[in-house]
Design brief:
Layout: H1 2-11, E1 13-15, E2 19-21, H2 32-45, E3 53-57, H3 61-72, E4 76-82, E5 91-97, E6 104-110, E7 119-127, H4 131-142, E8 146-156, H5 161-167, E9 172-181, E10 188-190
The structure holds guanosine-5'-monophosphate.
Amino acid sequence: MKLLEDMIREKGVVKAGNVLKVDSFLNHQMDIKLFNEMGKEFKRIFADKPINKILTIEASGIGIACVAAQYFDAPVVFAKKAQSINIDGDVYSTSITSFTHKREYQVIVSKKYLSSDDHVLIIDDFLANGCALKGLIELVKDAGATVEGIGIAVEKGFQDGGQIIRDMGVNLHSLAIVDSMNDATGEIVFRQE
Ligand code: 5GP
């Protein structure tokens, strides 16, 4: 998506350790006009899918998911980060290893908000090693629900996640795929569709 790529080129900062900082418009300060265009694009991509729920993960997926949800007329459920001691039988839970924080944490979704009737679009801001997505897919499967697709804002194509998730047979679309980035020069190269 050209608008997102232009914004990443203009305002993204390449950090050491394969981290792309986009917190001036995507995951700290949020550019809602951009989110609105991303929401429209997700709707265009997944228009033929019977999506009745959007699932994302706390915290940075929530804004993107909420704006997109208006185009799907569907509620948003976000997987909550939880202390494992608080987990009871009323929730689906899984553990996720954070790429940016390098630690493992539990995420939960209440059984009240995910069921076998649900046709789910998963939305998140970044795809790196795919751990967050694998966890979200597992929660959907545990609920007996169906993953209709996954919409990602920024995929780092030089990390494994995209390949792993596509190999699972899931309909994954990323609005911008970064094929390489250089923290010394700041250069970012996008995949051409
Ligand atoms: P994964 O589980 O695919 O390795 O990483 C996905 C999660 O890590 C995303 O939800 C996102 O919050 C965070 N993340 C991964 N890579 C980056 C990055 O380069 N920049 C930022 N800002 N977040 C990232």
